[in-house]
Protein backbone atom coordinates (compact mmCIF):
# COMPACT_ATOMS: atom_id res chain seq x y z
CA UNK A 1 0.00 0.00 0.00
CA UNK A 2 1.24 3.50 -0.68
CA UNK A 3 0.37 6.56 1.34
CA UNK A 4 -0.44 9.94 -0.13
CA UNK A 5 -0.11 11.92 3.05
CA UNK A 6 1.43 11.89 6.48
CA UNK A 7 -2.08 11.57 7.92
CA UNK A 8 -2.70 8.32 6.01
CA UNK A 9 0.69 6.93 7.00
CA UNK A 10 0.14 7.75 10.67
CA UNK A 11 -3.31 6.14 10.62
CA UNK A 12 -1.67 2.89 9.48
CA UNK A 13 0.96 2.88 12.25
CA UNK A 14 -0.27 1.06 15.38
CA UNK A 15 -0.27 3.37 18.39
CA UNK A 16 0.47 6.55 16.41
CA UNK A 17 -3.10 7.76 16.08
CA UNK A 18 -4.06 10.82 18.07
CA UNK A 19 -0.44 11.88 18.63
CA UNK A 20 -0.41 14.66 16.02
CA UNK A 21 2.23 13.08 13.79
CA UNK A 22 -0.02 13.39 10.75
CA UNK A 23 0.33 17.14 10.98
CA UNK A 24 4.11 17.09 10.63
CA UNK A 25 5.37 19.09 7.66
CA UNK A 26 8.03 16.93 6.00
CA UNK A 27 8.72 19.26 3.08
CA UNK A 28 11.95 20.68 4.51
CA UNK A 29 13.26 17.17 5.18
CA UNK A 30 12.49 16.12 1.59
CA UNK A 31 14.20 19.22 0.25
CA UNK A 32 17.31 18.50 2.31
CA UNK A 33 17.41 14.92 1.02
CA UNK A 34 17.29 16.22 -2.55
CA UNK A 35 20.56 18.05 -1.91
CA UNK A 36 22.38 14.70 -1.74
CA UNK A 37 22.13 14.51 -5.54
CA UNK A 38 24.25 17.65 -5.81
CA UNK A 39 27.06 16.48 -3.53
CA UNK A 40 30.12 14.58 -4.69
CA UNK A 41 32.02 13.49 -1.61
CA UNK A 42 30.65 11.03 0.95
CA UNK A 43 31.12 13.44 3.85
CA UNK A 44 29.03 16.08 2.01
CA UNK A 45 26.31 13.50 1.40
CA UNK A 46 26.45 12.42 5.04
CA UNK A 47 26.06 16.04 6.13
CA UNK A 48 22.90 16.35 3.99
CA UNK A 49 21.45 13.09 5.33
CA UNK A 50 22.29 14.08 8.91
CA UNK A 51 20.69 17.50 8.44
CA UNK A 52 17.56 15.97 6.85
CA UNK A 53 17.24 13.62 9.83
CA UNK A 54 17.71 16.51 12.28
CA UNK A 55 15.20 18.68 10.42
CA UNK A 56 12.64 15.89 10.57
CA UNK A 57 13.15 15.41 14.31
CA UNK A 58 12.73 19.16 14.88
CA UNK A 59 9.57 19.19 12.76
CA UNK A 60 8.13 16.28 14.75
CA UNK A 61 8.97 17.99 18.05
CA UNK A 62 7.51 21.31 16.88
CA UNK A 63 4.33 19.62 15.70
CA UNK A 64 4.03 17.73 18.99
CA UNK A 65 4.43 20.97 20.96
CA UNK A 66 1.81 22.73 18.82
CA UNK A 67 -0.62 19.84 19.26
CA UNK A 68 -0.03 19.76 23.01
CA UNK A 69 -0.43 23.54 23.28
CA UNK A 70 -3.69 23.43 21.35
CA UNK A 71 -4.99 20.63 23.57
CA UNK A 72 -3.92 22.50 26.71
CA UNK A 73 -5.58 25.68 25.48
CA UNK A 74 -8.87 23.93 24.83
CA UNK A 75 -8.69 22.04 28.15
CA UNK A 76 -7.45 25.16 29.97
CA UNK A 77 -10.79 26.88 29.49
CA UNK A 78 -12.18 24.52 32.13
CA UNK A 79 -9.41 25.36 34.60
CA UNK A 80 -6.95 23.00 36.18
CA UNK A 81 -3.71 23.98 34.50
CA UNK A 82 -2.49 20.71 32.96
CA UNK A 83 0.78 20.65 34.89
CA UNK A 84 0.37 16.90 35.35
CA UNK A 85 0.24 16.24 31.60
CA UNK A 86 2.82 13.58 30.68
CA UNK A 87 5.53 14.37 28.17
CA UNK A 88 4.92 13.00 24.70
CA UNK A 89 7.48 10.44 23.65
CA UNK A 90 8.75 10.65 20.07
CA UNK A 91 9.97 7.19 19.20
CA UNK A 92 12.43 6.03 16.58
CA UNK A 93 9.47 4.37 14.85
CA UNK A 94 7.80 7.78 14.55
CA UNK A 95 10.91 9.27 12.98
CA UNK A 96 11.47 6.34 10.60
CA UNK A 97 7.83 6.29 9.50
CA UNK A 98 7.86 9.94 8.55
CA UNK A 99 11.37 9.64 7.07
CA UNK A 100 9.93 7.02 4.68
CA UNK A 101 7.37 9.53 3.48
CA UNK A 102 10.02 12.26 3.19
CA UNK A 103 12.19 9.99 1.04
CA UNK A 104 9.19 9.07 -1.09
CA UNK A 105 8.25 12.72 -1.63
CA UNK A 106 11.79 13.81 -2.44
CA UNK A 107 13.13 13.76 -5.97
CA UNK A 108 16.36 12.11 -4.80
CA UNK A 109 17.70 9.95 -7.61
CA UNK A 110 19.98 6.94 -7.28
CA UNK A 111 19.04 6.54 -3.62
CA UNK A 112 20.63 3.14 -3.19
CA UNK A 113 23.87 4.22 -4.89
CA UNK A 114 24.16 7.25 -2.59
CA UNK A 115 23.58 5.11 0.49
CA UNK A 116 26.09 2.47 -0.65
CA UNK A 117 28.71 5.18 -1.30
CA UNK A 118 28.17 6.71 2.13
CA UNK A 119 28.09 3.32 3.88
CA UNK A 120 31.43 2.28 2.40
CA UNK A 121 32.94 5.58 3.52
CA UNK A 122 31.53 5.29 7.05
CA UNK A 123 32.78 1.73 7.47
CA UNK A 124 36.30 2.68 6.43
CA UNK A 125 36.36 5.93 8.38
CA UNK A 126 35.06 4.36 11.58
CA UNK A 127 37.89 1.84 11.53
CA UNK A 128 40.52 4.56 11.12
CA UNK A 129 39.30 7.04 13.70
CA UNK A 130 38.84 7.15 17.43
CA UNK A 131 37.57 9.41 20.18
CA UNK A 132 35.54 12.46 19.20
CA UNK A 133 35.82 11.64 15.50
CA UNK A 134 34.32 8.19 16.08
CA UNK A 135 31.45 9.74 18.06
CA UNK A 136 30.70 12.06 15.15
CA UNK A 137 30.58 9.08 12.79
CA UNK A 138 28.30 7.22 15.21
CA UNK A 139 25.84 10.13 15.20
CA UNK A 140 25.94 10.50 11.42
CA UNK A 141 25.80 6.73 11.07
CA UNK A 142 22.48 6.75 12.92
CA UNK A 143 21.02 9.18 10.37
CA UNK A 144 22.39 7.08 7.50
CA UNK A 145 20.88 3.97 9.12
CA UNK A 146 17.54 5.74 9.34
CA UNK A 147 17.76 6.51 5.61
CA UNK A 148 18.64 2.87 4.89
CA UNK A 149 15.62 1.75 6.93
CA UNK A 150 13.40 4.22 5.10
CA UNK A 151 14.52 2.87 1.75
Molecular structure report:
There is one protein chain. This protein has 151 residues and is mainly alpha-helical. It is 67% helix and 0% strand. The protein has helices spanning 6-12, 27-34, 42-76, 92-105, 111-128, 132-150. Helix 5 runs antiparallel to helix 6 (132-150). The longest helix has 35 residues, at 42-76.
Quaternary structure type: single chain
Q: Give the strand content.
A: under 5%
Number of beta-strand segments: 0
Largest sheet features: none
**Mean pLDDT, nearest integer?**
78
Radius of gyration: 18 Å
Low-confidence stretches: 79-85
SSE string, helices as H and strands as E: HHHHHH
Structural class computed from helices and strand pairing: mainly alpha
How many distinct helices? 6
Q: What is the straight-line distance between the termini?
A: 15 Å
Please state the overall shape, judged from the principal axes of the Cα atoms: elongated
Give the helix level as a range of percent: 55-70%
Amino acid sequence: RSFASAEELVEAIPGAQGRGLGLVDIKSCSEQLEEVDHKITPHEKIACIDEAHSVLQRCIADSARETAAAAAASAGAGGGGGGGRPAMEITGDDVISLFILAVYRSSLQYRLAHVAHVEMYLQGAAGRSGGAEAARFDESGYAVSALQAAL
